[in-house]
Amino acid sequence: MQGDAATIAALFAVDPVGLGGVALRAPACAARDEWLTLLRTLLPSESPFRRVPLNTGDTALLGGLDLGATLQAGRPVALQGVLAQADGGVLVLAMAERLTAGAAARFGSVLDSGHVLLQRDGLDRVLAARVGLVALDEGADADEQLPASLAERLAFHLRLDGQVKDEEGPHWTADEVQEARLRLGRVQMAQESVQALCSAALALGIDSMRASLFAARAARAAAALAGSDTVEEEHIAVAARVVLAPRATRLPPSPEQQEPEPPQEEASPPEPAENPASEPPLEPEKDAQDETKNEDGDDADVPPPEPLEMAERVLEAAQAAIPAGLLASLKIGALQRAKSPTSGSAGAEQKNALRGRPVGARKGEPRAGQRINVLETLRAAAPWQKLRRSPLAPASAMAPRIVVRKEDFHVTRFRQLGQTTTLFVVDASGSSALNRLAEAKGAVELLLADCYVRRDSVAVLAFRGKVAEVLLAPTRSLVRAKRSLAGLPGGGGTPLATAIDAAAALAGHIKRKGQTPIVVLLTDGKANIARNGHAGRGPAASDALAAAAQLRSIGVSVLLVDTSPQPQNSAAQLAAAMGAQYLALPYGGAQSLNQAVRAVAGRY
Amino acid sequence: MALNFPFSAIVGQDDMKLAIVLTAIDPTIGGVLVFGDRGTGKSTAVRALAALLPKMRAVKGCRYGCDPDAARCPDCLAAARGKAHASELVGVPVVDLPLGATEDRVVGALDLERALSQGVKAFEPGLLARANRGYLYIDEVNLLEDHLVDLLIDVAASGENVVEREGLSVRHPARFVLIGSGNPEEGELRPQLLDRFGLSVEVKTPGTLEERVEVVKRRDAFEQDPQTFTAHWKKEDDKVRKGIVAGRKRLPAVQITDSARAFTAQLCMALGTDGLRGDLTLVRAARALAAWQGDKSVTQVHLQRVAPSALRHRLRRNPLDDAGSSTRVERALAELASAPQK
User: Fold this and answer.
1) Alpha-carbon distance A54 to A24, whole Å?
2) Quick one: closest CA in B to A60, which residue?
3) Which residue of A has its CA nearest to B291?
4) Among the four A66, A217, A250, B126, which has the fewest Cβ within 10 Å?
5) Cβ B15–A270 below 8 Å, yes or no?
6) CB-CB under 8 Å, B166 with A405
7) Residue A106: pLDDT above 50?
8) Is the pLDDT of residue A568 over 60?
9) Is A153's pLDDT higher than 90?
């Protein structure tokens, strides 16, 4: 892996703008620092290398009016944003896994276009911003990830796991990179190479065209780096390994089963128009296409020598680089991303919130409960003071010091996260009841105690014998919760599948109300009552697993607390089936359970 | 400014290209919403649009790009006093509204420079003024901040922008075709804004290897040598432009038969689209399609071709029917086609 990390640094240094950047998923560790240092040394020393903190506002990012300088100079003075300042260089974005969708879109548009369209504070500029971006992603688990729209625009997705291994694999010097930069424009690429990359991308289930485009550019960079003027198969293989492999969403079908499953059925191109004959062609005619081919490479009219074989070899190279288990973790990641598009926040965001975390200001009058933002209002009024003052008598004692008008008013914008409802599913069966039930009750009460601060609700669902019943509908009332929990009896079978079904139904209901459900399942995982009410470990366990898969498909956060005295496989398997976080708490008291739940729920 | 990837060189994506061409032929269809997968060339197509559009005649030096025959902006009204305006040919504006734009730049505000240096109140038109008679493009439209969305909804409906600032009141025309693109995963659009888009198209990544290879080849050729590549495709772009000009000429003469109107009404009833705007847009788009194809009257074939684009974003959500909107339009079309004509 270290070898590829060095390769990626070198390829990126050769063509930072064309390749977009690197999504570097790694904890803050020595290996990451070392990689960044390596990149810095490979890039031309005079090119900007800027670090951007996470919550950089629009003015600092894109640019805006420098109010102080403007007032002093008596003419508008623009403040350059960090994107424009880094033109021709590389930006390093810290904690990118917490980037909001809006910020990701701002970076994305600059990466796409190479300039900043500044339409702010009366300024109307187009500023060059040809930058490459290194997005540092410190996400600890699968649901903390770089926003997909940004990851898409970065050619390389690199993982470092903290191990520093020196002097392994290839490495390059700054001079070699500089030479490659000069050579890059002359590198020729044959059509069969493009074909090999595209078919590898298709076989690996990579939908976006950007991946193939990046792979082609990376192949050019690899050729330039190797001092070659044409892209050879080895360069294609490198590109497939470092660009395509980390994006794979499936493994290519093995040769013998290739026939029955044509890839990408659902994405087949739209049917041609009903009467294509009478529709003027939007597509150019055949001859035009042929001409392009001739420009692309001289060997276009000669049938390429067995391009399929080359495609297969390239695919093999990519496949070899897919680490085992990556695909499974990708699927979980996709599921978890689907439930919150703005990664890194627990509750769904509410629009036009009147409370919550302030996120800037906007023009408008303070009405309907909105709060005036005094600083922004004064800033808006400042440039116009001279204009407003001129009709007044000069230096009149009665004139106000600052003339603020209605149109200056700015109100604070808030971001509020949706309410969270924690749904406790408590196993009250004979196998786990006695000691655990008291803890669950205690934890619910502890959670309720601070739910006024966190604006959370709590619900409790208990299962024993053959049924699962809602003991406590979602509530914030401490008194009601205590009363209903006090009467919870224990003993009987473990109808786990029924309980999970009921939890899924209730979670779906909570979700439809616009709240974010979190399911906490306290069980030892030893199901012995099947869905149909009959006793039997085998069918009960398989029913439970099926129910778990269904709960997973709703896409809610689940915490499974294994309450058996000796944590066992069955509960862990169940947790995996429902995509839950697994926590073995054999001797935990109410206090530690409460802490665990808060860790899952209180991610914001 | 750097060269844009030529419109005709975009591989596939016929629905998207057709929708853009139709609104160029008849801007009253309204805007185009392009929603779909990442990396499918959504913004490439829109950015290529500027090079495609035939030039228009505008009042010389007018900051709002007024039509000389109907100059109604404050500048032209003040300057003219009954005289004819001097005019010139200008490119149709395709204006980018970037995320992070502030309200004063969108609607226009006082000219800060003149206010500071001379103490003069002068209106500095914003992006809405610049987009007048042209296109306003918002990439990632679903991420646009709410207060800007409100503003756009209002102006897009009235065709006029009113600014009150520092005791100055400016009212200027702002008629533009709104083009939005985005990825539905990032969030949904408010129904009011959805309604402002005449057509909506869904784009998908090309599925076949041939298409994908062609995409990469052309993009690669463009990036290696933009000048040569653009020059090479200029002929094709010219062809499309001529087609648009011819389509515009033919448009007023295109007939809409009673049976075509009946089909439209039946289809909209079957789908339960809200309001009349669906009917209207569908007929307009079909008429533009007939003009583009050189047909004299609108037939069922035209209606069927544009119905998904014109109607799919106007359907009410049906909780019992989880099929996508496009599927529902297709299904209604199939049912209507098989039913005996009354």
Assistant:
1) 15
2) B100
3) A279
4) A250
5) yes
6) yes
7) yes
8) yes
9) yes
Long-range contacts of A386-392 (CB under 8 A, 24+ apart): A386/B115, A386/B116, A386/B119, A387/B110, A387/B115, A387/B119, A387/B120, A387/B121, A387/B166, A388/B166, A390/B119
Which positions of B are annotated as active-site residues? Answer: 277
A292 close to B (CB below 8 A): yes
- Find the CB nearest A149 among B103, B186, B213: B186
Is A208–B39 a contact, with Cβ atoms under 8 angstroms apart? Answer: yes
Q: How far, CA to CA in Å, does B241 sit from each of A118, A250, B122, B305?
A: 31, 43, 38, 21
pLDDT of amino acid A262: 40
Q: A352 to chain B: nearest residue by CA?
A: B146
B3, B38, B236: best mutation site toward chain A, by most A Cβ within 10 Å?
B38
The DSSP annotation for A163-177 comes to ----S-S----HHHH
Task: State chain A's mean pLDDT as an integer.
Answer: 76
CB contact under 8 A, A292 and B217: yes
Give which of A108, A131, A106 is closest to A120, Cα–Cα: A106
pLDDT category of residue A391 using cuts at 50, 70 and 90: low
ipTM of the complex: 0.88
What is the pLDDT at residue B86?
Answer: 84
Find the closest chain A residue to B217 by CA distance. A194
Q: What is the pLDDT of residue A172?
A: 86
- In 3D, which of A551, A390, A543, A391 has the Cα closest to residue A461? A551
A262 at interface of B, judged by CB pairs closer than 8 A: no
CB pairs under 8 A between A and B: 226
Closest Cα to residue A473, out of A455, A459, A461? Answer: A459
A567: CB partners within 8 A, 6+ apart: A584, A586
Strand arrangement, sheet containing A557-562: A467-475, A457-464, A420-427, A516-523, A557-562, A581-584
Asked whether residue A18 carries a pLDDT value surpassing 70, the answer given is yes
Q: Tokens standing for A24?
A: 């570097």
Q: Which of B103, B218, B235 sits opposite A363 (nearest CB)?
A: B103
pLDDT of residue A392: 53
Residue B133 has a CB neighbour count (10 Å cut-off) of: 19
What distance in Å separates the CA atoms of residue B308 and residue B302, rounded to the nearest whole number?
A: 11
Residues of chain A in contact with residue B190, where contact means CB-CB under 8 angstroms, are none
**DSSP-assigned letters across all residues of A432-466:** THHHHHHHHHHHHHHHHHTHHHHT-EEEEEEEETT
Per-residue pLDDT for B178 more than 60? yes
Rounded CA separation A343/A98 (Å): 6
Run of H or E residues at A408: none
Chain B residue with CA closest to A151: the answer is B38
Summarised one tens digit per residue, pLDDT across range A498-539 is 888 888 888 888 877 767 788 888 887 888 888 888 888 888
Using the beta-carbon criterion (under 8 Å), do B215 and A387 form an inter-chain contact? no
* C-alpha to C-alpha distance for A405 and B214, rounded to whole angstroms: 58
Residue ranges with strand state E in A30-122: 49-52, 63-65, 78-80, 90-93, 115-120
Interface touch A269/B213, C-beta < 8 Å: no
DSSP A12: H
3-class SS at B318? coil
Q: Name every chain A residue with its beta carbon within 8 A of the beta carbon of B187.
A: 101, 341
Token pair in block for residue A527: 């199901």
| B210: closest CA of chain A, how far (Å) | 8
More confidently predicted of A450 and A332: A450
Gap from A266 CA to chain B (nearest CA, Å): 8
Alpha-carbon gap, residue A226 to A219, rounded angstroms: 11
pLDDT number for residue B118: 80
Q: What is the DSSP letter of A24?
A: E
Could you give the CA distance from residue A264 to residue A252 in angstroms, rounded to a whole number? 12
**DSSP H/E element including B336:** helix B325-338
